[in-house]
Records
---
Amino acid sequence: MKNICGFILVLFILSSCNSGKKRVDWDDELMIVNTFMDNWHQSAAIADEDFFFGSLDANAVYLGTDPSERWLKHEFVDWGLKYFERDTAWAFTPYDRRWEFSDDLQYAWFDELLETHMGICRGSGVLKRHDEGWKIKQYNLALTLPNDQMDDFRALVGVENK
């Protein structure tokens, strides 16, 4: 009986030891990335171009709603700076955001719904962790369309129903 109790004690001690892996607090990770994205959206609402464009990774890609809108960071800055000369560039209010993380916690990707001047849009993106914090590698802004309005949309853009 002593041997069994000793064996269980040793197992307990070994399982309690730090194996060198950082323990992940998912609530903290989610709070950090949610705050980062909320601040990014807020920076557009208050026309803070330094934070908005500074949150993009050096080789970030921004995809807009128009098929022609695929910008590398420097192109997006060139296109977007004129909007930041106003009191607000644009105001998108995110909700229903969902996250996933890479196993090594160096990348995070998400999708979110947004209340915008265009109606409900969907944003999705990829973030990369850097020493100084998270940066956006890609952001995709998409219009949403209820399925029951697809025929009207096809007619609007000149696509035949099949």
---
Amino acid sequence: MQGLAIFIHAVRMVIGNFGQTLRIGGVALAVMVALTLSQEVGSRADGTLSAAAFLLSLALMIVGLWVAVAWHRFILIEETPGTMLPAWNGAAIWAYFRASFKLGLVLALLIIPLMLIVALAIFPMMGARADAASPGLAVGMLAFVVTLLPAAYVFYRLSPVLPGAATDRPMTLREAWYQTATGGWTFVTLALTTLVAGWALDAPVLALAQISLPLALIWSAVAQWLAFLVGASILTTLYGHYIEKRELNA
């Protein structure tokens, strides 16, 4: 169960370095909370707030790249964050963006044909059953198996290009694929583990919404923040284990 060990190791890095986690990701958390609340307000108001939400979304993307790069550099090359903010490294952030864009293109080229396969498969399924619940469950399972698992597997196989770009040690997608060849089912179990953990983290939202909508929105933002940092930590762990040959401590 090395996939589970990788996930646990990544979570421990976030919790065990929580002071640095806040220094690196505190701004991202503030932007996420502001964006979440502004979207709720904007849904009740006019286009001005919608424009503000768009600008916050753009800011969140930039801050997300900043935080991801800073986290990779903190763990892999021990670059200490500043007192309140992580160091801004424009060259590394740009390299990270370019590597993310290339990786995203590869995933899109994989996912689009798989989605077409799912679409072709569900037409007979939907026509054969009048009951919407059973086909809905079957479609969801089919989509997960045919699209999400392969996409997650390929993403994790190629993901070392991201920490590599962040730490000024660029590598090609081909090199990343070769270096992670021994992973096998590790990446599948890792994908399943992160899916279950994400579901558990989001589960309180509906219950909190019955008490207070703003509280539910804040919890949702915090959950997304934690998921983002653990996700960045997973990529860091994969790079450290498969590229630098570090041992797992979980």
---
Amino acid sequence: MEALADACAADNYPAMIAGVLSDRVDAGGLATAARRGIATAALPRADFADKAAHEAAIDDQLHAWDAEFVCLAGFMRLLSAEFLAPWQGRIINIHPSLLPRHKGLDTHARALAAGDAVHGCSVHHVTAGMDEGPVIAQARVPVLAGDTPETLAARVLAEEHKLYPAALKMLIGQSAR
């Protein structure tokens, strides 16, 4: 989120952040956004009767902000096909692996355990399946001798911070055509 906020602060970037939303009141991104003067909203799952009601509240907030694109960053819940349908092509996520390899959690440890020579990150369209949407862009990093999940994660994170803003910019350019 912070990398996207940094990119959006540049005069030549084609987007601005309408708001930062989390399903956790204590999410660090909310405090970071508030310090930057970006609108925030916390919609804890426990405040809603079910997933459909929670997703309806998220959708309402996105529309209240007049959001055109949704960029997930650390949102650890699958969204329903019903929620995603109106956002199709305009909701994206970043994942710390070269999809389709290593969907889900613990990607760095899994890449090391698999003996992967190359690892990285992917920006992808969000679908109702876990990390299954079409890939928009990827960045690769070598897996080095002696890497730990932590050292590999740090190199991948540096690439994520460059890739996510670049992929969003590309997607916005495509939608403007």
